[in-house]
Structure formats: C-alpha cells, structure tokens
Amino acid sequence: MAPPVAPALAPDGPRDRTGHRHGADPGSAPVFGHVHHVMGTVVSFDVRVGDGDPRAAMVALSRACARLDRADAVFSTWKPNSPMSRIRRGELALREAPPALGRVLELCALARELSAGWFDPWQMPGGVDPTGLVKGWAADEALSVLREAGVRAAMVGAGGDLATFGSPEPGAAWRIGVRDPWAGDRVACVLESPGAVATSGCYERGDHVIDPRTGRPGTRFASATVTGPELWLADALATGLLVAGEEGLAFIDALDGYEAFVISGTGATARTARLPVVA
Amino acid sequence: MRRAPIVVAATAAGLAGVLGFHTQQPSLLSGLSGGGTTPTTSGGGTTPTTAPSGSGASTSTTAPGSTSTSTPASTTPTTSTTTTTPTGTRTAVGADVQYRYGELELKVTATGGKITSVQPVIDTAYDARSFQVNSYAEPQLLSQTLQAQSANINGVSGATYTSQAYVQSLQAALDKLGIK
User: Fold this and answer.
1) pLDDT tens over chain A, length 279 residues
2) pTM of structure
3) Under an 8 A CB cutoff, do A190 and B153 touch?
4) Are residues B168 and B99 in the same domain?
5) Exposed, middle or buried: residue B147 (CB in 10 Å: 0-12, 13-18, 19+)?
6) DSSP result, B51-91
7) Is residue B148 domain-shared with residue B64, that is, in the same domain?
8) What is the third-level CATH fold of A5-271?
9) What distance in Å separates residue A151's CA from the closest CA in chain B?
10) Of the candidates A225, A249, A264, which has its C-beta nearest B157's C-beta?
11) Inter-chain contact A33–B129, Cβ cutoff 8 Å?
12) Does B170 sit within 8 Å of A184, measured CB to CB?
C-alpha cells in the first residue's frame, strides 16, 4: 500500500495581480479543486470549505484520496495480487479478507435484488466481480471523509459517476450534465444531483458490460443514467439498466428516490417521471 | 413502492426528426412516396442492396431479419391488402443509413401511395428499438443537446473514461477552468 500523497491544492478562483487566488468572489470561502488518478480513471474533487477550517479540509482531501487508493488496492480485478483477485481465484477466504470486501459484496447482493437480477456480480465471467459497484462505493466513502471533516459542500466525480452533498452556492443544487454519447462537448440534459448521478455506456471503453442472463456483452442503450441518494446503488443500477433495456426503467421507477434517464442507439430518450431534470 | 408513469419519448415524431435530419438522403423514401414504385422483393429499377452501407437505396430486400415482404402491416388500415398493387398496403426496408447516432435501417409502410408508418429495423451494435409512445410521451430526439459551455454545470456524468481519455473530456475542461 503506497502512502497517501498529499494532493497539490490550490484554492480555486481568479488570480489577482499578485498571483494569489481568491474564491469566486473576493472574501468568499475557499474552493478546492483536485484530480486524482486511481482505478484506471480520474477522480475529480470540488470542495467548498465554507466556514470550516481550510487546513482541515486539505487534510480530509488527502485522506479521501488515500481511501480511493485503498479501495483500488483491495478491489482491483486488474491487480493479480489484490484480495479481490485472490478471492476470485479461490486463494483467499472471505473471512480472511479485508472487512470492506465483505461489506461491498453485501451491497452487491442488495443491488442484485433491487435490480431484479440485472446487476449480478456473481454472473460475470471469471468469478464474482463487483467492479460495477465499487467505484461508486469508493466515491461515497471519499465524500463521507470530506463531509465528516466539516466542509460545507463537495462533489466527487469518479470517472463519470458523481457523488455530491451540500449546496455549491447558497440555495443552489449541484448541476450535472449527462454527456451526449456521440459528442463529448455536449450534454443531453442537465440534472440536479440528489446525491448521486451515475451513467453507464460503451462509448468510452467499448462493449464491456455483460448481460448477466447470457454472460455476454448485451448493451441495450447508448447511455443509461441513474440518479439517487447514494452512488454505490446508482452506479450498480445504471450498469443493470444498460443491459436490461426498457424493462429496466420499471425496476428503477419502483425504487424510492431513484430515477433514470436513457438514450437509445437512435438518440431517442426516455426517463422516469421524477427525474430531477432542469435543462 | 410507487408506481408512476414512465415518461417515454420518441418513435413516430422522433423518427420524423431523424428523417428530417438527413435531408441529404431523400431517396430513402422515394421508392414509396412515388406511389407506383417497387414495393418489395423485386425492386423495380432500384438495386437490391446487399451492401449495408449503401446510402439511401429505397428498396433493400436482402437485409437479414427485414420484414420486407408485402404483408399488410397491422397498424395500417387494411381495406385493400392485395399486396403489389400501388393502392395496396406495402412495406419496404431501406438500406442502412449512416447518421449521427449510428446505423439505421427503416421500415416504411405505405397504403395507397401514402406513408402510414415508419419504424426502425434494428441491426446495429446498440439495440435501437423505438420506445413505445404512451400518453405521457414528449417526443424528442437528442439533436437538441446543449453546448456544455452554456449549460452552467458543475460536473459531467458519462460512461467511465480511462485516464488517457480523461484529458480530452469535458470534466477535465471543467476541472482545469476551475469551478464556479
């Protein structure tokens, strides 16, 4: 396990003539931005310190990054010696594995049930694979570190899946654009984050999402987005929805607090009734 | 547990949008709109398309899975269903058309020279089935996407990018610009 590296931090906002940075308005609370490379992708942080202690916020940001590194070390199926890889090969018993591993597999079982089996880590080729849930769970964990450190609001964007809390500005919600699958500089709609926004699709890394009912790639939408209070579940549901197709909209619609937005291969869109869409 | 109507968009009006989007390929429908031309398996004058990427040929018949036989479509009035006459109900499947959202093949049904339905026939990487339009439908296509600059957003949700692809991403641009 590599020791956590303190992120290079810079309060966000325009520079004045002396090169110092302020918040968006002179005299307002500092805003920290940071990006962290982990889990084969990039995690972006937007931290609004509010009237909290900026130094405590920096320490918390460093710990949040360490939490992500730790999740990668435990759960990576790309690292042959990670506990997850050893469990998949039958070399490690669950009771001997880090406790987080058991907790995540419990969440996987819950997500499988809530998705009517469309998200099923136990039906993946090569043994149990919680990858479709871990990134969202790790971002939830990183966000809790920041929240517990007393920052006013924060957003953790884990490679296209986002967890948020608080208000970036007084009275405002975090505004999240859902990417146009065919144009990286356009967004299909803008959502107000209720805590988590997750999107699954194949336009970045190819047809990699496995249909648990066939064991083969079986993507039914160009893009499937799920919003809700927690990212671990939104992430898993978005993965399940991508292979479930239209009938997946029904299982999301039945879950309190979770909503969905999908884009078909022809660019047609569909959404559940209470999707927090603002533009 | 709650039951709320699923709001679904697209199909009929949406496809009109698709067709409108490709005005450079008007020949897609020309075989039908003319009334007297080539309903199905013996393309009268136009080439049967085996090449899937042919642009806008009007009467492809050899596409796998196509329903290009001249059966009466269930959604159309079937007062006169004797197949090959110009006044009957006819169905034809166009060649694959490359357009913004991938490859598309359309099945067009006409009765008496008038188009009565246009439906996608799916054979692409993505399942491009049309959504069923219900009474809550607000047909729309994704052609009305927003330029990110004007969307005033804090973050971008999308398929997971790699570390390398992040550099090109909208999220990277937001991160670099600093957040409002």
Assistant:
1) 444 444 444 444 443 333 333 344 434 567 888 999 999 999 999 999 988 889 999 999 999 999 999 999 999 999 999 999 999 999 999 999 999 999 999 999 999 999 999 999 999 988 999 999 999 999 999 999 999 999 999 999 999 999 999 999 999 999 999 999 888 888 999 999 999 999 999 888 877 888 998 888 888 899 999 999 999 999 999 999 999 998 899 999 999 999 999 998 888 889 999 999 998
2) 0.66
3) yes
4) yes
5) exposed
6) -TT-SS-S-B--STT---S-PPPTTS--S---TTSTTSEEE
7) no
8) T-fold (3.10.520)
9) 16
10) A225
11) no
12) yes
Which residue carries 């099923």 as its tokens?
A120
Number of domains in chain B: 2
DSSP class of residue A130 equals T
Q: B138 contacts in A (CB within 8 Å)? A: none
Domain membership flag for residue B15: no
Give a yes or no: residue B13 inside a domain: no
Nearest 5°: phi and psi at B174?
-65, -45
For residue B54, give its domain range.
Answer: 27-76
Please judge whether A42 and B130 are an interchain contact, meaning their C-beta atoms are less than 8 angstroms apart.
no
Chain B hits for A246, CB-CB cut-off 8 Å, are 129, 131-132
With b for 16 or more beta-carbon neighbours within 10 A and e for fewer, the B110-138 pattern comes to bbbeeebbbbbbbebebbbbbbebeeebe
Contact A182 B104 (CB under 8 A): no
